[in-house]
Design a protein that fits this description.
- With 428 residues, this protein is of the alpha/beta class.
- It has three domains: 144 residues, 3-Layer(aba) Sandwich (Rossmann fold), CATH 3.40.50.1980; 189 residues, Nitrogenase molybdenum iron protein domain (Rossmann fold), CATH 3.40.50; 37 residues, no CATH class.
- The chain is built from 16 helices and 14 strands.
- The strands form three sheets. Strands 1-11-10-9-12-13 form a six-stranded parallel beta sheet, sandwiched between helices. A five-stranded parallel beta sheet has the order 6-5-4-7-8, sandwiched between helices.
- Strand 9, helix 9 and strand 10 form a beta-alpha-beta unit.
- The termini are far apart.
- This is Histidinol dehydrogenase.
Amino acid sequence: MSRLKVVQVDDQVTLKRSVDEGTDEQWQAVQSILQDVQKRGDKAVADYTDKFDGVRPSPVQVSGEEVERAYENFATADLQIIRDAIANLRDFHERQVQQSWFTTKQDGTLLGQKVTPLDAAGVYVPGGTAIYPSSILMNVIPAQVAGVERIAMVSPPDEKGCLADSVLVTAAELGVKEIYKIGGAQAIGALAYGTETIDPVDKIVGPGNIFVALAKRAVFGTVDIDMIAGPSEIVVLADESAKPTYIAADLLSQAEHDPMSSAVLVTSSKRLAEEVAEEVDRQLETLPRRDVAEASIKNYGAAYVTSTWQEAIDTVNTLAPEHLEIMTNDPMKELGSIRHAGAIFLGEHSSEPVGDYFAGPNHVLPTNGTARFSSPLNVEDFTKKSSVISYSQEAIQNNGEAIARFARLEGLDAHARAVEKRLGDQDE
């Protein structure tokens, strides 16, 4: 029997999602760490790095010599791939830049919006047993394109107190010079509150484990954060023209991330659903991360079969997935019907990993159904907007009485008087 459940849909479905809100013990541990970092600064960060990572890097900031050694160990072919990916991402994100704007009226009124980049951003890059240079690209490039002048990057060190060559080279290729060998909740605290070595930032972005996620949630308000991301999700919307081998491979590409990842097929073809389920079984047999992917497919995977194609579209919009692949005879035709998805991949050649690493769009995407109201990480996330208002003498004369009357509707007489003082001055 297939590990991918084939389910006939009679009504709208709800994606079985795995959301880790953290235990009381984890919340208490994170709060304790953050308070300690606020109080003891560098010493607390070093102590927790020693406790959780088994090392005490000294110095904690990556040196130029470490970066040079990383380049010496890094393959030329891999370096070119990194550079090509950077070019693609910069080109895409530069198209997102918003300009300040102003408009005027005949009475001398000037109104506008001033767009200003944040002063400093902190980027958390998962590390230790895993290596994620793509995470550096996705979080640093939109900040740089926005005009953020200072970017501080943190990442957990390995057992030798070092960061991976690919991490250092990728950061160096982007021009990031402020790199710290720290991770966990203590790194989030250092970025949010500052220490003797690390100045505080305005926003913290980047994924991490449950302790990092809880720490980001706890410091929100002191600084801004990107999002609290859940396990990865993929939904494939397919008709009978789609290849089962492609669909199965793409479902497994997300299932191998985490036992709590979700991989779902939505189709109006029961035959396709059954063929994909069989193909998932076949491909699982030779997958190196089989145990992880199998747990994901078993607990959070499904092939939903709808009675009509419109029901399939409606199901996708209800699920609001992080990644949506459309494998149909005419995928562009379906694009207009999709309202809720983090990233949309059109056609059989647009496999999800294309967006993960290389194409240009950001892979930091809304999960857990939040694509209903939120967007991928983008340049605008690293800017803030100020409204600009300038009233002339003529404008205040023309509108002052109405403004004062509006203020008194709310019982705020001082507001009204602040305007009327100016009207009186003009009468004199």
